[in-house]
Structure formats: structure tokens, C-alpha cells
Amino acid sequence: MRPEDIKQVGVVGGGVMGGGIAQIHAIAGYQVTIMDISQQVIDDTRHEVVDGKWGIKRSVEKGKLGFDNAVSAIDLIGYTTDNNDLSECDLIIEAVPENLELKQDVFAELDKVIKPSAMFASNTSGFVIQEIAEKISDERKTLMVGMHYSNPVPVMTMCEVIYTPQASQETIDTAVTIAKNTRRDVSMCKDMPGTRGFILNRIFGVAREEANKLVEDGIATKEDIDKAMIAGRNWPAAFFGTRGGIGKQW
Ligand SMILES: NC(=O)c1ccc[n+]([C@@H]2O[C@H](COP(=O)([O-])OP(=O)(O)OC[C@H]3O[C@@H](n4cnc5c(N)ncnc54)[C@H](O)[C@@H]3O)[C@@H](O)[C@H]2O)c1
After folding, report:
1. Which of 87, 168, 181, 201 is catalytic?
2. Deepest in the core among 51, 124, 141, 173, taking most CB within 10 A?
3. Which of 34, 45, 96, 147 to mutate to test the pocket of ligand 1 (most atoms within 8 A of CB)?
4. pLDDT for res 122
5. Best mutation site among 12, 17, 37 for ligand 1 pocket (most ligand atoms within 8 Å of CB)
């Protein structure tokens, strides 16, 4: 698929990440459908996308998004609990919980109901993309990459594009272009069996372990660690969230 062929985006798993991923694609002008097995999640996500802390209305209030763009973005997002409603999507981005077997089964099911030319992407935090793709057809494997976003998606502009040996160059290039169209700063990362995590989470994981060890060994408090990392390295999402901000989510 070429970037200009991507018009409809399906987001599977409409929780914390799925809502944000849908939001940035709608703002970029894509028709988006969020699919989640829970109607309650869909209702909550609709609220978050429109009225939430990182939602579309707040972006308008902060002067980051024009009114017309906001209205059309809200209109561009549809919601469903049925995979079949995604059958005509050109790109599917999966954001179901971080469970390898679940992701494999979700993609196996999507492979059956989504049109054969559609691209697949996983927002896994760290599973090997080739393992997630284990139960899909060889043809679809050429159309699959990882697209790893950071939370909260409307605020953090990272997108790691994870490329497998099976993915075609066109698939990889299109994923990069789509990510750029949603105003992401794209980093390329090779899919590597035997590893866990891509760029951000591998580096952050080591640092977080050290932070926990500093606390366990009684060397520094959580507050002092957060303060040092914010003041000394400009890491606003510091480890323990003791100074508020988005660090609270870690
Ligand atoms: N939260 C983060 O900070 C973060 C950051 C980057 C990547 N991720 C990754 O993104 C993915 C989603 O994380 P999240 O935090 O949004 O989780 P979440 O629990 O908020 O959302 C997952 C959603 O998937 C739905 N779901 C479960 N099974 C489903 C199925 N078969 N079909 C459709 N929907 C289904 C659930 O109802 C839930 O709403 C995970 O792989 C996670 O590791 C999370």
C-alpha cells in the first residue's frame, strides 16, 4: 500500500493508547474506526477523545488545533464492537493488552475479515513483531510492521517504526509516511527475535531498574530521583511521578 491509498484506519483496542492513536489519525484527516470488545471502554474513550485532558477540545482551547479541524476530526471517528466493521480499512493499528497470545489471536482473526491489501501494525510495547504475526498469512506478513507510540499519544510525538525481514519496503515506507502525517517524530528500529522492547523501553527499562535500586538500597528517595532527572536531564516523565505531570503513569 502506498501512503495515498490509506484513507481508512481501524484501531483495535480502544483503551488508553487506542483512543490517542485514533485521535491523531482523525486530526490528520483519516477516517478512523475504533473497535473494542467493551462498550463501556468505547463510551469512556469517546469522552476522552473529545473532552478529556488530552482531548480534541482541550487542544482547541490551548490554541494547538483549529476549530474546523477539531470538528471534522470528531466527525471522522466511528466506534464499534464488531471486527467486521473494519473490513474495508486500509490500515489496522492494534492496541489490545500486552499479551502475546491475545495479540496473535486478534491478528489471526483480523487477517480473515480485513481486505487482503490492508496493512497491519501493532503498538506492542515490546513483543517481537514476527512473533505477534505468527498466525497471519505470509502475504499479510509483508504488510505488517510495529508502530509504537508513547503515552499520552496526543502529547508525546514518538513513533518507533519496527520493521521485520518479511515487511516489504513499500509497507515500511508507508508506515513512516503515515506516522509523519500524524506529526510523529519517527525512529526506525529493527525487529529482533530474542529481545524485548524497542528503543525507548529498552533504555528506559534499564534506567527505571536503577532508580528502583537506588530507592531499595536507601540511597535516594523517589522525590530526589525525580528531581535529579527532571532538573539534570530534562526527563519530564520521571520515574515515580512525585512531581506531578505525566510521570504519574509510570
Ligand atoms: N499505556 C501505555 O503507556 C502504553 C504505551 C505504549 C504502548 N502500550 C501498549 O499498547 C497496548 C495497549 O495498551 P493500553 O494501555 O492502551 O491498554 P488498555 O487496557 O487501556 O486498552 C486495551 C483495550 O483492548 C481491549 N481489548 C481486549 N481484547 C480485545 C480484542 N480481542 N479486540 C478488541 N479490543 C480488545 C480492552 O477492552 C481494552 O479497552 C499494549 O500492547 C501496551 O503494551 C501502552
Report:
1. 201
2. 124
3. 96
4. 98
5. 17
If you take atom 28 of ligand 1, which residue's CA is the nearest one?
A: 96
Domain extents in the chain: 3-190, 200-244
Are the C-beta atoms of 116 and 139 separated by less than 8 Å? yes
Q: Which residues, in sequence order, are CB contacts of 216 under 8 Å at separation 6+?
A: none
Q: Span 3-190: which CATH code? A: 3.40.50.720
Residue 13: which pLDDT band, with cuts at 50, 70 and 90? very high
pLDDT at 161: 98
Please report how many Cα atoms fall inside a 13 Å half-sphere around the Cα of residue 191, on the Cβ side. Answer: 24
Q: Are 6 and 91 in contact (CB under 8 A)?
A: yes
pTM exceeds 0.90 for this model: yes
Using the mean position of ligand 1's atoms as its centre, give its distance from the Cα of residue 227 in Å: 30
Residue 243 confidence (pLDDT) above 80: no
- Mean pLDDT in residue range 94-110: 98
Please indicate whether residue 181 is annotated as part of the active site: no
User: Is residue 159 within 8 Å of residue 186, measured between CB atoms?
Assistant: yes
DSSP code for 30: -
Active site (annotated) includes residue 59: no
